Amino acid sequence: MDPVPALDEPLKKVLGPATAKVMAEHLGLHTVGDLLHHYPRRYEERGQLTHLADLPMDEHVTVVAQVADARLHTFASAKAPRGKGQRLEVTITDGSGRLQLVFFGAGVHKPHKELLPGTRAMFAGRVSVFNRRLQLAHPAYELLRGDAEETVETWAGALIPIYPATAKLESWKIGKALQTVLPSAQEAVDPLPESLRAGRGLVALPEALLKIHRPHTKADIEDARARLKWDEAFVLQVALARRRHADAQLPAVARRPEPDGLLAAFDDRLPFALTEGQQKVSAEIFADLATEHPMHRLLQGEVGSGKTLVALRAMLAVVDAGGQAAMLAPTEVLAQQHHRSVTEMMGELAEGGMLGGADGATKVVLLTGSMGAAARRHALLDLATGEAGVVIGTHALIEDKVQFHDLGLVVVDEQHRFGVEQRDALRGKGKQPPHLLVMTATPIPRTVAMTVFGDLETSVLDQLPAGRSPIASHVVPAADKPHFLARAWERVREEVANGHQAYVVCPRIGDEEDDPKKAGRKKSPEDEAEKRPPLAVLDIAEQLAKGPLRGLRVEVLHGRMQPDDKDAVMRRFAVGEADVLVATTVIEVGVNVPNATAMVIMDADRFGVSQLHQLRGRVGRGSAPGLCLLVTEMPEASAARQRLNAVASTLDGFELSRIDLEQRREGDVLGQAQSGTRSSLRVLAVIDDEEIIAEAREEAAAVVSADPDLTGLPALRTALDALLDDEREQYLEKG
Question: Which of 153, 181, 373, 628 could anchor a disulfide with 616, C-beta 3.0 to 4.6 Å?
């Protein structure tokens, strides 16, 4: 049997079962290689103390500091009624601030002997507040003596690495474990091609691993990080480049529109001219459709930039060329909405085979899960015979029963709501792989698009069509200034009095059972501060109808209503038979009511930045200016309020998406949040390392086009296999 390569050695063999178990359960580290890639979060300098002044609340921290004084107190308590209870209070300092450590009961003896004034040590624990002062209760600690052999060896070098740690495993224990496995770093196989490494002056991988875990100077850390960032960016971009290369080998039918066919007739009907952006993006799409390989394009555009029109023109071009086009929407409400707006835009061109239909017209059918059996049978027949050139539907389109005559283009709306399998299943409906256009209204910074959607070419619509109105956004601090909330409801009444309509959005429906699983979940400090569940549609609708909006026609819309009821409510709102729609985020995408000018978002702090931006895009869709009010009870200094202020201060979705990304963990970007696996990004920051990602993409494309199977680069193949376990492989297939 071949020996296991050093980096694949299980940690339990090297470190013992107890430590290995904690590392596996709490840090997701299983092999020597995993541990070598568990990089320090930051470094402390021996001679320089950490900033106790900047400690984060309720987080597990490691600090290096000096004992200023230590006092042992006795007290009476239920357990020690005769005044025999003991409490040791130790004050530590680092020049920037002071911090109190407390030890109780039998736990006082060892620290009382060891933590004498002047002693330097590393302390780890969770920061809490007692009597309005920061403290660590029962922290673990490691003395920093310069004399003992073992300590000098362990903390060799002037820089002390501080590792991402847990309460079960302090930073220095991880440091000690790393000292044990560090010799194996010499056997790390280098995934970067030698020419790339030399050309960019990057250190070899074994050297980078040694320098990141045992740096002697700050330059060592810089060298190591520069090298390790390249590994992450390059291996990921090679994975994406290989997908693009594989897709480009697939055959597809080239689809070119007739010069005087359906598309030309549709363009003649349009009551307005296309924006420059729409023309440019359409040209990119038509060029892709005319090739004999499947198009894979991401169309991102601001809310209301006219993506649907661009997608519809692409669909009509394919119908012109004898194929069929399918548009996949994430919800029934949205599928019905798209169907309505497409048939309205096309007019008699959508009435193929019907009395009054124009010459060369096609049929536009809707297919959703809740349709009646007869209507469904009819729709399926139209698809199978090719009578219907355009179909719009939910994932009902993916079912086995659905057969297409000749599927040429798939348009996926709101990509982030569709899984991998669904996209593949729909692709499998064509005789050859159909062309693919993915639309998203969530603006994505360029680097994230290159990283997450790297297997798609990207088109951006950033101009708003003429006639769209500006939206004024304001934060309404309901707790600090209740009269601001009262004024918000007055503003809604004023909009309605002027003949307009309004949305009120809440985070919750309000008819759900309290989920015990959710109740047991650890709450964030901000949730704790609130101690109340998020506001609910059903409660708020009732309060408004009886109170500040009495006399107005208030309707309710949420995801658990029957599809027919939802559709009826949306229709009534669309034609102006309701004044105020109190809804959950079901209205977040695609709902188009130009007469709605005001939106009040309750508990706005419970929504993400891009979600708020999406919601806001539902107003100001007509000629009257829009108004969006973000209601929150969060205190002014909170991170949640800063987030809301950012949303209120700009309408630029790309700017907001950067803010959103900076506030979330990088891991979320790569979708690891959903899959529960650790993020493959450890040192690469998607926003800050834009240049590295762009350069890595170019290098990866060159490597893959020269050697698609990477036969000449076995080490790169190995790194790729490690990155692309099944879950990530699927994720890159675009869940």
Answer: 628
Residue 518 pLDDT greater than 70, yes or no: no
SS3 of residue 119 by DSSP: coil
Distance CA 41, CA 49 (A): 16
| DSSP 8-class letter at 19 | H
CA dihedral (438, 441, 446, 449) in degrees, to 10, reads -40
What distance in Å separates the CA atoms of residue 114 and residue 122, rounded to the nearest whole number? 13
Q: Which residue has the tokens 């002062």?
A: 133
Q: H or E element: which one contains 678?
A: none
Q: Which two tokens stand for residue 633?
A: 């009870």
* 266: number of Cβ within 10 Å: 23
CA 607 to CA 613: how far, in whole Å?
Answer: 10
* Cα radius of gyration (the chain): 30
The yes-or-no verdict on residue 678 having pLDDT over 50 is no
- Confidence band (pLDDT; 50, 70, 90) for 311? very high
Residue 281 has pLDDT above 90, yes or no: yes
Distance set, CA 355 to CA 290, 358, 361, 374, 375 (Å): 33, 9, 11, 21, 19
Two structure tokens written together for 411:
């348009």
Q: Give backbone dihedrals phi and psi of 589, rounded to 5 degrees, phi first.
A: -120, 135
Alpha-carbon gap, residue 565 to 558, rounded angstroms:
10
Describe the crossing of helices 639-649 and 609-616 by its angle, rounded to 10 degrees.
Answer: 40
Give the end-to-end CA distance of the chain in Å, rounded to a whole number.
39
- Look at 63 and 524; give whichever has higher pLDDT: 63
Token digits of residue 643: 């987030």
Q: Can you tell me the mean pLDDT for 590-606? A: 86
Per-residue CA distances from 459 to 286, 294, 301, 310, 444 (Å): 12, 16, 8, 11, 11
Return d(Cα 3, Cα 7) in angstroms, integer. 11
Region 652-659 average pLDDT: 76
- 279: CB partners within 8 A, 6+ apart: none
Query: DSSP secondary structure string, 567-581?
Result: HHHHHHHHTTS-SEE
Residue 442 Cα to chain centre, angstroms? 10
Q: Which residues are paired to 67 by β-bridges?
A: 92
Per-residue pLDDT reduced to its tens digit, 98-115: 888 999 888 888 898 999
188-to-182, 207, 209, 574, 679 alpha-carbon distances in Å:
10, 10, 9, 62, 20
Structure tokens at 89: 């209070």
Please check whether residue 396 is in contact with residue 372, taking contact to mean a CB–CB distance below 8 angstroms.
Answer: no
The CA distance from 341 to 417, in Å, is 21
Distance between CA atoms of 115 and 722, rounded to whole angstroms? 45
Adjacent-strand bridge partners of 89: 71, 102
Cβ 628 vs Cβ 592: under 8 Å: no
Query: Which among 318, 280, 317 is positioned nearest to 299, based on CA atoms?
Result: 280
Residue with the bigger pLDDT between 708 and 426: it is 708
What's the rounded mean pLDDT across residues 136-154?
65
Query: What is the average per-residue pLDDT within 34-57?
Result: 72
Is pLDDT at 668 greater than 60 in this prediction? no
CA–CA distance from 445 to each of 23, 497, 615, 687 (Å)?
Answer: 34, 40, 19, 8
Nearest Cα to Cα of residue 656 among 426, 448, 467: 448
Segment 313-352, tens digit of pLDDT: 999 999 999 999 999 888 787 888 889 889 988 988 888 7
Report the predicted TM-score, pTM, of the whole model to 2 decimal places. 0.66
Backbone dihedral region of 414: left (phi > 0), alpha (psi from -120 to 50 degrees) or beta?
Answer: left
pLDDT of 656 reads: 79
Whether residue 647 contacts residue 635, with contact meaning beta carbons closer than 8 Å, is answered with no
* pLDDT over 70 (residue 190): yes
Pick from 78-92, 154-168, 421-435, 634-648 the range whose average pLDDT is largest.
Answer: 634-648
| Confidence at residue 90, expressed as pLDDT on a 0 to 100 scale | 93
d(CA 505, CA 560): 15
